[in-house]
Automatic annotation (TrEMBL):
InterPro entries: Peptidase_S1_PA, Peptidase_S1C. Pfam families: Trypsin_2. This is Trypsin-like peptidase. Coiled coil: none annotated. It comes from Promicromonospora umidemergens. Residues 38-58 are annotated as: Disordered. Gene3D superfamilies: 2.40.10.120.
Length: 249
């Protein structure tokens, strides 16, 4: 039997992680992309956020591209402050958890070096603990998606911001698939032993080639981590009814 699972959004006014229950229903579409940036304006991102010359994985400052795509999310909520993680999937789109952006008055997003990213619209899923955040500012890097979900025994690396602190990279392996203990209708999710903590919610889980294989959304009572599989994320992004505009205060 799967141990009780806890969501991992770091809450400033609560101690430890919270049990996450319920889901949002309804139909909708992903939030629209922002207006195109005028061609005569150059984004103000620091030069060291650009990929290394020759298309290598390392940037000039030594950060791997898969680390540079991770963002810290600070949710200035209706009643409390919380923190979480997210990752880019294209120049203007972030993936995170629904509970990371819930009950938000304002979302503050920043990169590993403290560069602030202006947020546009946000939408949340009804089926899984997923959210899509559109950004006005361009994102510095985004990873490749894996071709298939991982199998038990495959390595997994989690890149995120536990406790809203510094960027961390933890490693483990996929242990098994299991029924989602938090969202009864979702079906199978991935169980791994990669360490995660409050604030890790929304982190990208990567394979040994740096490709996304899932999204961290909770941990179990025995400190294993739970991932929404890549295939579920892709199916939901392709479904016009999967996401609805996020409700704030």
């Amino acid at each position: 039997m799967t141990s009780p699972a806890r969501s991992l959004a770091g809450r400033a006014l609560l101690v430890g992680a919270l049990f996450l229950t319920g889901s949002l229903g309804g139909c909708g579409v992903l939030p629209p992309l922002p207006e195109p940036v005028p061609s005569d304006i150059v984004p103000s991102a620091p030069p060291d956020l650009s990929p290394a010359a020759g298309g290598g994985a390392l940037s000039p400052d030594g950060f791997d591209a898969v680390e540079r795509m991770a963002v810290r999310i600070r949710n200035v909520g209706c009643e409390e402050l919380s923190t979480g993680s997210g990752f880019a999937v294209d120049d203007h789109t972030l993936i995170t958890n629904k509970h990371v952006v819930a009950d938000s008055k304002e979302l503050e997003v920043s990169t590993y070096d403290g560069h602030d990213i202006t947020v546009g619209a946000t939408a949340t899923a009804g089926l899984a603990d997923l959210a899509v955040v559109r950004t006005t500012d361009p994102l510095p890097s985004f990873p490749e998606l894996a071709k298939t979900d991982p199998k038990p025994g495959d390595p997994v690396t989690v890149v995120g911001y536990p406790a809203g602190g510094e960027l961390t990279v933890t490693e483990g392996k996929v242990m098994s698939t299991t029924r989602d203990p938090l969202n009864a209708n979702l079906g199978e999710v991935l169980l791994t032993d990669a360490p995660v903590e409050p604030g890790s919610s929304g982190s990208a889980a990567l394979d040994d080639k740096g490709r996304v294989i899932g999204v961290v959304y909770a941990k179990t009572a025995d400190d294993n981590s739970l991932l929404v599989p890549l295939s579920t994320l892709q199916d939901m992004l392709a479904d016009d009814t999967a996401f609805t505009p996020a409700k704030g205060c």
